[in-house]
Write a structure and sequence with these properties.
The protein is α/β, with parallel strands linked by helices. About 35% of the residues lie in helices and about 20% in strands. A seven-stranded mixed beta sheet has the order 9-8-7-4-3-10-21, with helices on one face. A four-stranded parallel beta sheet has the order 14-13-12-18. The relative contact order is 0.11. This is NADH:ubiquinone reductase (non-electrogenic). One of its GO terms (molecular function) is calcium ion binding. Its EC number is 1.6.5.9.
Length: about 575
């Protein structure tokens, strides 16, 4: 009895002691104590001080980005990656400044000066961004997964294939060359889409001069070997022709004086003018300069076949076919769709399109979580006539069946944001305000008393959709799309509660869109023409041509480099070329 009493008192004191947290800060949750009180067991549970297990942090949404070109890199640089689990898939572990690829072909700029490693670009983001050097060969929107194949080796299964799931997919795969199924192009022509293409062209140019220098080669054969043909008179073809001409005149002629007289450069263009996407004044200036430089322009000709030593062209006006012998041919006649994009378009019902269609928010309409930016996509601007009835209903707040000018002005800003063709049409027709546009359907010159019904409203806006524009497939567009989409991702949660977009003028017409739609802002474009001359088309219908424009080109392209490393390398390459000339080594 006495032992049991003392054992119980000792146990009570011990239980009081263990209520206190230990020096390590650990609280005892339960204790089984054996006491000599009739051989019983005392159980103690300290539920009052039990610590609740911390809740796990919410899972980050998975964002998979396909491609490291202009669009993908711009998106990744501006994305707040701390909000998402970001994974990047690309067979190219670097970003290439593609506007300088023509300069790489002739040694004006070295290849490594225009590339920046992807991992270096995102090292500040640390573990928030994971990169895999692989190629995506299939997109499965149903399972929200992408199938990839390693570009550098195989995994344990021996095939190098793996799959990644996603919550959001950003497709920025760019485009490939478009041969228009012309026979012989893939086998015999060079292209200028990648850094590797520029390096191959550089070697081939030197090879042509070395082959033509071999003894016992006839003059006719020398003329063929030293005939450089550029197929396509767009910006890429023109810039390469200008760079090649400068390389020949400033460097190779001095090194190969015996065969300089046999060199010839020809541009074959299916249209009537080169640089047809530029202002006509620039096209005329470029054509006259090329003619002075001795560059032959064959406009109005279409290539129908390419063999190992000749190109068959057909005159579009007369239909006469001509054989053009050549030593090296460069194909720069357009861009095409990559196979993985073609397969994806077939899955989502876009099989008849040339590019992946997105809405004005860069989302693929058939897939809520898939976005497409850059050359692989094309924005389908919605036409105002498709929503004209909803617009009228939203504007008619008093349900009178008619609209006053004030009611129209109340929704005008939302209309112009949602349908940019309205402003473009008014500008093209030199209209001051919306009243001038509505007068076309009413015919009433009194703006104050202007009232329109639904039919008159339709009549006034029926020609607006003629100003729907498609954005060009350029690096400038891709970079702006990447920046815009990253900004939308960064404020996605905020805009759910505080929408920034225009009124919903489709479907039910209720509420606002979360974001403002993408709007491309044209900042101008350059066309280097050789001989330290260039042409520029800048905002405000300003056209500049000549030597001063070339120096503007230097400053703009240096400032647009993605890092100080590439900026210094490019400027030093230009300086080296000014002092020592271009390197003609075949390496």
């Amino acid at each position: 009895m006495g032992f049991s009493f003392f054992a119980s008192r000792a146990a009570a004191r011990f239980l009081q002691d263990i209520r206190r947290p230990s020096s390590a800060g650990v609280s005892t949750a339960a204790l089984l104590l054996t006491a000599a009180s009739g051989g019983g067991i005392v159980a103690y549970a300290d539920s009052a001080r039990a610590e609740e297990a911390p809740e796990p942090p919410p899972r980050k949404k998975k964002v998979v980005v396909l491609g490291t070109g202009w669009a993908g890199t711009s998106f990744l640089k501006n994305l707040d990656s701390s909000r998402y689990e970001v994974k990047v898939i690309s067979p190219r572990n670097y970003f290439a400044f593609t506007p300088l690829l023509p300069s790489v072909t002739c040694g004006t700029v070295e290849a490594r000066s225009v590339v920046e490693p992807i991992r270096r670009m995102f090292e500040k983001k640390g573990k928030d961004v994971a990169y895999y050097e692989a190629e995506c060969f299939k997109i499965d929107p149903t399972k929200k997964a992408v199938h990839c194949r390693s570009a550098v080796g195989t995994n344990l299964d021996g095939n190098g294939d793996f799959m990644l799931d996603y919550d959001y997919l950003v497709v920025a795969l760019g485009a490939t060359v478009n041969t228009f199924n012309t026979p012989g192009v893939m086998e015999h022509c060079h292209f200028l889409k990648e850094v590797e293409d520029a390096q191959k062209i550089r070697k081939s140019v030197i090879d042509c001069f070395e082959r033509a220098s071999i003894p016992n080669i006839s003059e006719e054969e020398k003329r063929k070997i030293l005939h450089f043909v550029i197929i396509g008179g767009g910006p890429t073809g023109v810039e390469f022709a200008a760079e090649l001409h400068d390389f020949l005149v400033e460097d190779l002629v001095k090194l190969y004086p015996a065969i300089a007289q046999f060199v010839k450069i020809t541009i074959i263009q299916s249209g009537e003018h080169i640089l047809n996407t530029f202002d006509q004044r620039i096209a005329v200036f470029a054509e006259s300069k090329f003619q002075r430089d001795g560059i032959e322009l064959s406009t109005g000709f279409r290539v129908i076949k390419v063999s190992d030593d000749s190109i068959t062209v057909k005159c579009k006006s007369s239909g006469v076919e001509t054989l053009v012998p050549y030593g090296m041919a460069i194909w720069s006649a357009g861009i095409g769709t990559r196979p993985v994009i073609t397969d994806f378009m077939n899955q989502v019902g876009q099989g008849k399109r040339r590019a992946l269609a997105t809405n004005e928010w860069l989302r693929v309409p058939e897939c809520d979580s898939v976005y497409a930016i850059g050359d692989c996509s094309s924005i389908s601007q919605r036409k105002i006539m498709e929503d004209i009835s909803t617009i009228f209903k939203v504007a008619d707040k008093d349900n009178s069946g008619t609209l006053t000018l004030k009611e129209i002005n109340d929704v005008l800003e939302d209309i112009c944001i949602r349908y940019p063709q309205v402003e473009l049409y008014m500008k093209s027709m030199h209209m001051v305000d919306i009243a001038d546009l509505i007068k076309g359907g009413v015919g009433d010159s009194n703006k104050e008393s202007m009232v329109v019904n639904i039919e008159e409203f339709k009549k006034a806006l029926c020609h607006v959709d003629s100003q729907v524009k498609t954005v060009p497939a350029t690096a400038q567009v891709a970079a702006q799309q990447g920046y815009y989409l990253a900004d939308c991702f960064n404020k996605k949660d905020h805009c759910v509660e505080h929408p920034e977009g225009p009124l919903r003028l489709t479907g039910s017409g209720e509420g606002h869109h979360n974001f403002r739609p993408f709007r491309y802002k044209h900042l101008g474009q350059f066309a280097p023409l050789g001989g330290e001359q260039a042409a520029a088309e800048l905002p405000g219908d300003w056209v500049s041509m000549g030597h001063s424009t070339q120096w503007l080109w230097y400053s703009v392209y240096a400032s647009k480099q993605v890092s100080w490393r590439t900026r210094v390398l490019v400027v030093s390459d230009w300086t080296r070329r000014f002092i020592f000339g271009r390197d003609s080594s075949r390496i």
